[in-house]
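Supplementary Methods, section 5.1.

A reviewer requested that the exact input to the structure prediction be made available. We therefore reproduce it here, unchanged from the version used in the analyses.
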Amino acid sequence: MLVHIVADYGQGDLAFAEVVQRLKLYLPDAEPVLTPVPPFCTLAAGFCIAQLALNPAPVGTIIYHNVAPREDDHAARAGNAGERLSYARLQTGVRVIGVSAGHALSFIRDEAEKLRWAAIEAEGSQFRSRDFFPQAAASIALGRAQALAEEIDSRLIPDVPVSRIAYVDGYGNVKTTICFDENRFRSGTCLLIQINGVAHQAVVSDGTFGVKAGQLAFAPGSSGWKTKHGEQIKWVELFLRGGNAWELFKRPRIDTEVQLKF
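The structure derived from this sequence is encoded token-by-token as follows.
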């Protein structure tokens, strides 16, 4: 059973090892794959969840995610209470289990065939994703009816923010929440891209390598999926051929606005 673990513990952090160990205790057949995102960055988590869940996957695939900034209530908390554990099943057959915080479910909200809360308390440990949630996730994965609670009101899940940085990969390619529209963005034309006051010219391309070395491309990247209605979504990526686009824009944070000037 393929189990993606999307979390903000940090690359190579002990927390990943502890969570894997606990998941394997309750799901011995789990084959964990780790995907770290920046601290408290629910937008990046949501982007990764959707990319993995809405594309073809092996039968039985589970995505277990935990990015819990505990921003649902800014008052002092008793028992390390935080956002609740949620469950979603998608048309691909992938099951998504994790904390519903910020934009973690925004990309899959309208694609889910089922959205339910898990029947487990959301407090009692600073490290809930190790101490409590793996057992609950295993119960859901094994189809135990008592593991699920009431349906989630989808209106509680925020929309995907428009024109933001969603993820930065290991090459420094900047993945955004701008949908590529070939009628709006004509291949070969130039745009001025501004992020946090840093501006650079980019060439619209129908593929990231459709620019010369040293040029910044504005193109449909490798991330995207087909919706349940058959629409193909391709997210725009900023790609500096032979360089690092994220560095070019002075390392902006995830969720920073990407401004376009035609």
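Confidence is low (pLDDT under 50) at residues 72-81. These observations are discussed further in the main text.
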